[in-house]
Amino acid sequence: MKILVVNSGSSSIKYCLFDMTDQSLLAKGLVERIGIKGSCINHFPTGKDATKRVMAIPDHRKGIELVIDALLNSKSGVIDDISKITAVGHRVVHGGEKYSGSVLLNDDVINTLNEFIELAPLHNPPNILGIKVCQELLPDTPQVGVFDTAFHQSIPKEAFLYGLPYSYYEQYRIRRYGFHGTSHQYVAQRAAEILGKDIKELKIITCHIGNGSSITAVKEGKSVDTSLGFGTISGIIMGTRCGDVDPAIIPYLMEKENLSFKEINDILYRKSGFIGLSEGISSDMRDLEEQVQAGNIKAKRTLDVLFYGLKKYIGAYTAAMNGLDVLVFTAGIGENDPRLRKEVCQSLDFFGINIDDSKNDGLRGKEAIISTENSRVTVLVIPTYEELMIARDTVEICNNLK
Ligand code: AMP
Fold it and tell me: Which domain holds residue 323?
């Protein structure tokens, strides 16, 4: 069974082709700069040389056509016929309250996804576009939607409601949705597998820390709270997003600086977090770490805020679950930044978290247990693999069709 996984963004399409008989990756790639100058496709077939084609890619249709060409190419391709693709799994950011699991995409589902555009205006439209183009180009192939929000639909009401008039929840569905669900679910399941334990017996905190970040409390295999909420902005500070701020600041700033809705949104989503706190040094963690080593106080204060925020969430979610067995670090920063892991864990020995420096130092992008033998909480680094999770869900939905 070969599954194509598509993550269609506003100007890019990421793809992976898996052979699900052994869950191996046959090829992956990226179509970039769709509709803008310098568009190209980078294709990485497993065991063969990578290829790059630079050409005009005016729209997503052309982009998906190029993906199919790359997969079928006589030299760099990995399948000889399009019919070898059993199904396509699509990453969809927002599934609202309707989808707590993955679904076969039909017209009804797509209509519902269109209704969720107002909840995820930047993400759902290109996701839907990717689905429509794949339906057109692969009309006989089942298409499955896998939602970033689905894993978090198990969050109980006391954790997903905000303290606003209840009518806003009823009328506009204003509540905590949470994101990165596929990643949190994957690393939580993988942690249980690595430890040889039943996930239903574990209290896990998963820290997905990348350009976008979220922390999730996973109890008995289910998400019970998460730091991103209605939008993709709350929780710990991120590359350019502010994380938790007192809502009183927003109208205050709008008045003081005479800001429009669009301008304040831009500040909160694109000019805050690492880039804002560091006064423009960078939104990229590597640059900030480099500057910290060079003694830059702006970079240091930025990362101090990040580390403190992370500690607070770990503490809060330990309380929410009344305990903690496993702490997982994942995504670009979580997987690759030993200093962050050390700084955050070092002062949490009260919770039974003890890091083994010899296992943590220098560890980048690899699965490993980094806690000491006698640490009450097991701390792991697990590279996220959302694409594989999407492929697995797609297989499951297709098997249920039979
Ligand atoms: P992601 O959004 O998951 O791709 O993560 C992107 C973030 O990971 C960026 O802030 C990168 O700077 C960060 N990152 C990647 N490699 C490293 C590294 N070796 N050390 C620290 N941060 C890293």
Answer: 196-386
The average pLDDT across 59-87 equals: 95
Cβ of 337 less than 6 Å from ligand 1: yes
Is residue 43 located within the same domain as residue 109? yes
Q: Does ligand 1 have an atom closer than 6 angstroms to the CB of 285?
A: yes
Residue whose CA lies nearest to ligand 1 atom number 15:
332
Query: Does 225 participate in catalysis according to the annotation?
Result: no
Could you give the CA distance from residue 219 to residue 19 in angstroms, rounded to a whole number? Answer: 31
What is d(CA 197, CA 330) in angstroms, rounded to the nearest whole number?
Answer: 20
290 lines ligand 1 (CB under 6 A): no
pLDDT at 215: 98
| pLDDT (0 to 100) of residue 122 | 82
What CATH number should be reported for the domain holding residue 324?
3.30.420.40
φ, ψ of residue 246 to 5 degrees: the values are -65, 125
What's the token pair of residue 354? Answer: 């003890």
- Alpha carbon distance 64, 62 (integer Å): 6
How many domains does the structure of the chain reveal?
A: 2
In a shared domain, residues 286 and 375: yes
Torsion of CA 235, 238, 240, 242, to 10 degrees: 30
Going from the Cα of 76 to the center of ligand 1, the distance in angstroms, rounded, reads 29
Nearest one of 120, 87, 97 to 9, comparing CA atoms: 120
What's the pTM value of the predicted model, to 2 decimals?
Answer: 0.95
Q: Which of 65-69, 121-125, 167-171 is predicted with the least confidence, judged by mean pLDDT? A: 121-125
